[in-house]
Amino acid sequence: MRWEQQVQYASLSDIGFRRRNNQDSSVVQICSERDVWNRSGHLFMVADGMGGHAVGELASKIAADTVPHVFFKTGDQPVADALKTAVEFANAAIYERGSQNRDFERMGTTCSALVLSPAGAVIGHVGDSRVYRIRGSRIDQLTFDHSLQWELLRQGKLPAEDIFLHEPRHVITRSLGPEPQVNVDLEGPYPVLPGDTYVICSDGLTGHVNDSEIGQVADRLPPGDACRLLVHLANLRGGSDNITVVIIRVGELPEHLPELDRELSPAAEQSGLSWRWLATFWAVAVILVLSVSLVLFGKLVAGTLLAGGTVIALTIIVMVWASRQPKTPKNTSDAETLYWRPYRSASAQMTRKFLSHLSAIEAELQRTAIEEGWPIDWAAHEAAFAEVRSALQQKQYDQALAALARSIDILMVGVHVQRKQTAHAARWGKNAPSTDENSKQPG
Questions:
Q1: Beta strands at 197-201 and 243-250: parallel, antiparallel or unpaired
Q2: Is pLDDT above 50 for 177?
Q3: Disulfide engineering: 60 pairs with which of 47, 188, 278, 368, CB 3.0-4.6 Å?
């Protein structure tokens, strides 16, 4: 990645529909000075705290404070080493704080940190929060879930369908804080290409929104709009946990930079045949033709020996070439999620099925808002919904998605007002004092 590439980003954290406090934390630190960028890079992070009362909230906050502080302070180290050191410092800080108070004992948090630097994309990861990359029509999960389900999957003792059907989802096998030391997963550095989009999120999102849906939304909407729609989807499907999303989109290289500077992954560079390999194969082919010619002209022994030696040489060359090719998953279909080492990939291609699903959600929200008299900006909603109809008729699916996101966002204002009113009435009963929300009328 280059300093000249602009980065669009947004972050959003929501308490969800079933929790009383938000135990998630997030970090976005964009370098404003080139020398800091050259040493470290931009840092993004999500931490999902675990523990009763405010314990998890404290653990994630310590991580969110400690990781960036230590990371940028140790900028003289390679990026991966500095990130690992920062996460380990955060673990030590949380463990020490937990040891000082029995109520805080064994508090913990996940930590998924992404650095976009001159070296590429580097990830430091502990827990089951996730880092995704969207490139082209594919979304790739770049981190391994430190959960019971994924550990069983890695061991290969049970079929994947049995693991995810019968084993509990939220059993975490590794986190920051409970132990004095922690094993930090380091991923990368991965080459960063113009247009790449990264998503970092807590399991409050991934528990309700699948990889393909995350890819379709994050790839096509501006980061802020994408964050809001993903949080709305998670809440509308239950909102069982806190939801935190950070979305980062890498800009294009300025035109004055040479095309050669556009980075390609080692796999991409090795996927074709270099001129040396082509020359080798051509030479072997010429010798093989020569051996056949010798046989045809009556020199049977010489031709047979030359042909046999050529076949053996060709076999060895092919084996050496194949051994140097990048390992790829057996299933490369964009249409389904696959398991590989054991990270996942899924299609991020826009589908009519997903748009139809969003339209159904929007229609149900609209119906309920009218029946219950939610305070909605109906003029803004009607304008957005008219754009939805027009875009769908013209098969402009990206525009339809953007308009549906605005329409749902407007209606979700009413959902939150309604929830506040319900909570207020449950607390005060018939003698509940009036609130600003109670006094609002639909437009």
A1: antiparallel
A2: yes
A3: 47
Task: Report whether pLDDT(277) > 70.
Answer: no
The count of domains in the chain is: 3
- Domain with 341, as residue range(s), is 272-349
Checking if the pLDDT of 267 tops 60, the result is no
Q: Is residue 323 part of a domain?
A: yes
pLDDT digits (tens, 9 = 90+) for 235-266: 999 999 999 999 999 998 887 766 534 444 44
DSSP 190-213: EP--TT-EEEEE-HHHHTTS-HHH
Average of pLDDT values for 81-92? 96
Looking at the structure, do residues 183 and 222 belong to the same domain, yes or no? Answer: yes
What is the distance between the alpha carbons of residues 32 and 120, in angstroms, rounded to a whole number?
18
* CATH number, domain containing residue 223: 3.60.40.10
Q: Average pLDDT of the chain?
A: 83
Confidence of residue 163 (pLDDT cuts 50, 70, 90): low
* Residue 320 to residue 326: CA distance in whole angstroms: 13
d(CA 135, CA 350): 13
Burial (CB count <10 Å: 0-12, 13-18, 19+), residue 372: exposed
As a whole number, mean pLDDT of residues 400-413 equals 95
Same domain for 195 and 342, yes or no, is: no
pTM of the entire predicted model: 0.79
The domain boundary, picked from 330, 349, 368, lies at 349
Which tokens is 117 given? 């630097």
Residue 343 near residue 144, CB atoms below 8 Å: yes
Residue 438 host element (H or E): helix 436-439
Inter-helix orientation angle 223-236/352-372, to 10°: 70
Both structure tokens of 199: 């998503």
